[in-house]
Each structure stands twice: as structure tokens, then as C-alpha cells.
Amino acid sequence: MSLVLSRIIAGAWRLDQWQWSPQQRLRWIEDNLALGISSFDHADIYGAYTVEALFGEALALAPGLRDQLQLVSKCGIRLAVPARPGDLIHHYDTSAAHVRASVEQSLAALRTDRLDLLLIHRPDALLEADELAACFEALRREGKVLHFGVSNFSPAQFALLHSRIPLVTNQIELSPLHRQPLHDGTLDQCQQLGLRPMIWSPLAGGRLFTGEDDAARRVQAELQRLSGELSVSATTLAFAWVLRHPSRPLPIIGSRRIEAAREAVAALQLKLDAQQWYRLWRAGAGHDVP
């Protein structure tokens, strides 16, 4: 069965900062679902290993929602934090033992019997492709993880693991202020393989609107001009820029504000033409294309 994610994905990484009750967290889930945002992006380390449990506590209030949404999580980073006293240094770990333990912990925290998608969070210099692929296959056979992908992998790193087991996505950073995947082969590879990339930080962590560096100011000015011409919000325009790429990206929104999610969803109805798209590319780069 192929994986289908919503065109816009809700990112839960800040959930621990919102200081919400379980009922408020549930309302956030329900409000996203009402907008057609049915995929929720997690990682075991978010909130120093607390966010998945906060989400799971809310979902337990309405367990019938589980079949209406897709749960994505990531593993492979180990943080030296009080919650993990055995980890003395921040490092990566894609060993079969760690991946399996991470999945079991995520399932328990999220109060679910399965992850729809598991990603390796960062490329591990010690990744053993055959061992990891065998671990993935076992988790799939057990029904604990349905699909697999990676995050922040280069094309070569992606190709190595994909040669051992089919991957369904590469979650990467992309915005007018972070354009490298457009030109380093990452999005070319996605298009070649017919895999839709997930996009984190499509608003450049807020720099698109509040950054004070020269590149951010150029993009802000162009967003203001284009949003006036197209009669849409700057947020909608920024998401439309990401969505315009032919690899058919799936951007992640990290806001608790449902209005921000609504603006992101509105971008699905806006297709920029090439000149409009390149105006924002030029603003971020600070020069015309070669």
C-alpha cells in the first residue's frame, strides 16, 4: 500500500512550548484535520524527548481519530540531556538496536500501534546500509512501521540506502533563503525517482518575515510586492513558492495558529508562473540567474 500524506503537513516540534492542556492539543489536531491537514510530523528528540508523549496524550482523548491521520516520526539523533543519562555526547546512531528502541519508544509515547512513516533524522557517518535495511524490513513485517524515508540526506547518501530498501521521501530544508536543494541534485533526484520531498522550514524559521540580514530584507520586499500583485498573504505566497517545484514538495508548517495553517492551505490554489517564482529566487540569491 502506497503512502499518501496531506499536501500540507503539521509540524509538532514546538508542541512542548505551547503550554496547552491535552484538550487544547486535541483541538489543534482536529482543527488541522478540518483543513485537510492529516499528516503530523514528529521526531523522538523534539522537546528533549517530550513532544510525542504530549501528542499521544491528546490523541488518546479521541482514539477514533487515529485512522484519519498519518503519524511521521524521525530517529537517529541522540541528545545528551537529562532524559537520556547514558548519552554523554550529542551524536548520531542508526544501528538496528537504536532504531528499534526508538520506534518502540515512539509508539508508546504516541499511543499507537504503528508509524505511517519513519525517517532517519540526519545522515550518520557510521550508517551500515545493509543492517539498517534489515531493521526496516523487520519493523515493516511486524506492522510497526509502514513506510521509510530519510531527512537531510545528500543525493549520494539517499542513493546508498535506497539501493538496499525503497525509501519514500527525503525531508529537507527549502525556502527562498535556503535554495541549495534546487541546485545540488537533491530535488532532481526526487523528481527522477518520483518521490515527493517533505520540506522543513519553508518560512526559513521566520526569517522570511522578521530577518534583518540583507537577503531576508530583499525577500521581504519582494514578498510584499508580489503579495500585493496577487492579493494573497505573504505566508501563502511563501508556501506557493515551495509548492511550485515540479518534485511536488510537501511543506511542513510549525505554527500553533490555525490561521497560519489556513494561509498555507490557500497556497494549494495558487500556482506561480516562472517569472514570479524566479523573482523570489533572485531576491534570496541577490543576483539574477547566470
Structural class based on helices, strands and sheet pairing = alpha/beta
Q: Which CATH architecture of the domain at 1-168?
A: Alpha-Beta Barrel
Strand order of the largest sheet: 1-2-3-6-7-8-9-10
Mean pLDDT: 97
The CATH topology label of the domain at 1-168 is TIM Barrel
Provide the low-confidence segments as ranges. Answer: none
SS summary, helix count: 13
CATH superfamily of the domain at 1-168: NADP-dependent oxidoreductase domain
CATH class of the domain at 1-168: Alpha Beta
Order of helices and strands: EHEHHEEEHEHEHEHHEHHHEHH
Major sheet, described briefly?
8 strands, parallel, barrel
Estimate percent helicity. Answer: 40-55%
Q: Per DSSP, what share of the residues sits in E-state strands of 2 or more residues? A: 5-15%
Descriptive notes:
- By secondary structure, the chain is α/β, with parallel strands linked by helices.
- It has a domain of 168 residues: NADP-dependent oxidoreductase domain (TIM Barrel).
- The protein is built from 13 helices and 10 strands.
- An 8-stranded parallel β-barrel has the order 1-2-3-6-7-8-9-10. It has a two-stranded antiparallel sheet with strand order 4-5.
- Helix 3 packs parallel to helix 4, helix 4 packs parallel to helix 5 and helix 11 crosses helix 12.
- The longest helix is centred in the last third of the chain and has 17 residues.
